[in-house]
Amino acid sequence: NAGVTQTPKFRVLKTGQSMTLLCAQDMNHEYMYWYRQDPGMGLRLIHYSVGEGTTAKGEVPDGYNVSRLKKQNFLLGLESAAPSQTSVYFCASSYRGNRMNTEAFFGQGTRLTVV
Amino acid sequence: GQQVMQIPQYQHVQEGEDFTTYCNSSTTLSNIQWYKQRPGGHPVFLIQLVKSGEVKKQKRLTFQFGEAKKNSSLHITATQTTDVGTYFCAGPPAWPLGGGADGLTFGKGTHLIIQP
């Protein structure tokens, strides 16, 4: 029972570099989300997807892009990393959307440092 | 900004003491969820409240949703060291999302620190 798996778990980037964070879920969930967590800020929604081939902006989308080419995968891209993107990134999935009162399952997180 | 405000930010208790964290919103919430995050871990779903005035219990944990659906609380009776972590409330998307947007808007969390 893998649930939600994120890769990598840790990464250090130099300013201006690009990278992609991968999220995979094996629960056949339609909805997937990317959040970032910063000290004292709780979790903030970056982008989300309500199904394969669809994505939408969350609360803090600037500087990030996403793709959902397969139902089980949700990719988060940073085209030109900035120190302000140093954070812990969490992927989550849910069977139905949060508006339909379903719980979210979170991955283990990716700790990203941009220097 | 955040739709739900959560207090306190930190709470130190002696093992065996009770603990309460509060969530408040300026707008009516259709539902509220609670999550727990252990140090170095990821958020784990605890419960969801939907009905006005709803009260749910999970062993030593009691969750309440206010009558006006603008506030919620989590109370832990007789804390144990396994209760250490950060407790988050989360509600539907806040402005400027809202409408048909999905996802959760999290409070900033209450860090529970237990002294043996």
Structure report:
The complex is a heterodimer of chains A (about 120) and B (about 120). In chain A, the strands form two sheets. In chain A, strands 2, 4, 5, 6, 9, 10 and 11 form a seven-stranded mixed beta sheet that branches. In chain A, strands 1-3-8-7 form a four-stranded antiparallel beta sheet, with no helix packed on it. In chain A, a hairpin with a 3-residue loop joins strand 4 and strand 5. Chain A is globular. The mean pLDDT of chain A is about 95. With about 120 residues, chain A is mainly beta. By secondary structure, chain B is mainly β. Chain B is built from no helices and eleven strands. In chain B, the strands form two sheets. In chain B, strands 2, 4, 5, 9, 10 and 11 form a six-stranded mixed beta sheet that branches. Chain B has a five-stranded antiparallel beta sheet with strand order 1-3-8-7-6, with no helix packed on it. In chain B, strand 7 and strand 8 form a beta hairpin. The mean pLDDT of chain B is about 90. The interface between A and B is medium-sized, with 27 and 28 residues.
pLDDT below 50 for ≥5 consecutive residues: which ranges of chain B?
none
Estimated radius of gyration of chain B: 14 Å
The run of helices and strands of chain B is: EEEEEEEEEEE
Helical segment count of chain A: 0
Gap between N and C termini of chain B:
37 Å
Low-confidence stretches of chain A: none
Average predicted local confidence, pLDDT of chain A: 94
Structural class computed from helices and strand pairing of chain A: mainly beta
Number of strands of chain B: 11
Helix content of chain B: under 10%
Shape summary of chain A: globular
Average pLDDT for all residues of chain B: 91
